[in-house]
Amino acid sequence: MTFVPHRVYFEKDTLNYPLGRLLFERFKAAGVAVDYTGSHNRVMGIPGRTPQEAYTEAKKTLVLGVRRTLSFQTCKPSAHYQLPLTTSCPGKCEYCYLLTSLPAKPYLRAYVNIEEILNRAGEYIGQRRPRLTLFEGSATSDPVPVERYTGALARTIEFFAGQDCGRFRFVTKFTDVDSLLELKHHGHTTIRFSLNTPEIISAYEHGTASLKDRLEAAEKVARAGYPLGFMIAPIILEGNATLSAYQQLLRQIRSRIPVVPRLSFEFITHRFTRRAAKRIREVFPNTRLPLTETNRRFKFGQFGYGKYVYTAETMEEIKSILVAGTKELFPEAEIKYLV
Ligand code: SF4
Is 81 contained in some domain? Predict the structure, then answer.
């Protein structure tokens, strides 16, 4: 699954950086429509009159910029800071966690001043030394699809390999990981794959890699000695989706993944806010996602708005079956959480 943008915008300042110049020439030579933008934060000219068109066209648009704000957002509880390398992704998952936080045109953004971003990460690490500082590379994006252009993940992995007190992690639904396999990582980067059952992937995760391909990429990552993680999300138990499909998913993972020393699992059940449900129906008018509030429990969230989650009984059932199944099949793994 290779991302090739239909149009690329460059901030003029990107041409002061070797990566900016290289990408400008490369896209022009490949016949991709190239243009300038005054700011990577406000890009005009992406077509799309309806919410669906705007979303689809933005997902084919790449914007290269210089990251000027070098104060990193916190990323609790999973990490200390977000590492801002990219924003958005070419996937079109109906339950994307970015649907309500990115603008109506969620174009992809990548930065050419990677060294400046990493220097700043080094300062954050220094402030917390001797404690470990953990950085999350996918808080606002799936960073893998643009890696073939920027090499940002590779550079970041090598940077963290040299950090005694810094660690890096990211999660992906894509498989373009070959350029990362030979790198010196010193076990300081955890690569996680977001997985779901094949039925859920084909129903809702448009434009992403298949389960089979994600498992193949995960196996390569495991054999390259990286700490490996699986995020099973969102767990959906409505319509034809059953818990036994998730038990089968665990067996499929086991059949493909060797026993590795640093393996972890995260489980996230399906939940939605009223705002997210509205946005999903705008962008995906024919969605079959379960978004009915009546058979859910309302839970107040930490940011002042509530979300609709499964009932306590359903959560208990999911927990008992999936936690037990994971412990049995992966005694070597750490289960980080199930929410
Ligand atoms: Fe969103 Fe991740 Fe899907 Fe991309 S792959 S659309 S970031 S959920």
Answer: yes
For the CA of 89, the nearest atom of ligand 1: 4
Q: Ligand 1: distance of its center to the CA of 135 in Å? A: 19
Phi, then psi, of 149 in degrees rounded to 5:
-95, -45
pLDDT by residue (tens digit) across 67-98?
999 999 999 888 999 999 999 999 999 999 99
Backbone phi, then psi, for 121, in 5-degree steps? -60, -40
Range of the structural domain that residue 25 is part of:
7-338
| Nearest atom of ligand 1 to the alpha carbon of 88 | 7
The residue whose CB lies within 8 Å of the most ligand 1 atoms, and thus the one to mutate among 171, 208, 214, 279, is 208
In this structure, what CATH number is given to the domain that contains residue 140? 3.80.30.30
Structure tokens at 101: 């936080």
Task: State if residue 227 touches ligand 1 by the CB under 6 angstroms criterion.
Answer: no
The residues, any chain, with a CB within 8 Å of residue 173's CB and separated by 6 or more, are 91, 93, 142, 193, 194, 205, 208, 209, 214
How far is it, in rounded angstroms, from Cα 26 to Cα 149?
A: 9
Q: What pLDDT band is residue 239 in, cutting at 50, 70 and 90? A: confident
How many domains does the chain fold into? 1
Question: What's this model's pTM, rounded to 2 decimal places?
Answer: 0.97
Q: Give the type of residue at 268.
A: I
User: Tokens 């030579």 label which residue?
Assistant: 29
Look at residue 68 and tell me if it is in a domain.
Answer: yes
Residue 157 CB coordination number (10 Å):
21
Which of 55, 60, 62, 98 most suits a substitution to test ligand 1, by most atoms within 8 Å of the C-beta? Answer: 98
To test the pocket of ligand 1, the residue of 142, 176, 283 to mutate (highest count of ligand atoms within 8 Å of its CB) is 142
User: Could you identify the atom of ligand 1 that is nearest to the CA of residue 98?
Assistant: 1
| Backbone phi, psi, residue 333, to 5° | -95, 155
Tell me, yes or no, whether 1 lies in a domain: no
The answer as to whether 244 is a domain residue is yes
Return the amino acid letter for 327: K
Cα–ligand 1 centroid distance for 90 (angstroms):
8
User: How far apart (Å, rounded) are the C-alpha atoms in residues 289 and 240?
Assistant: 12
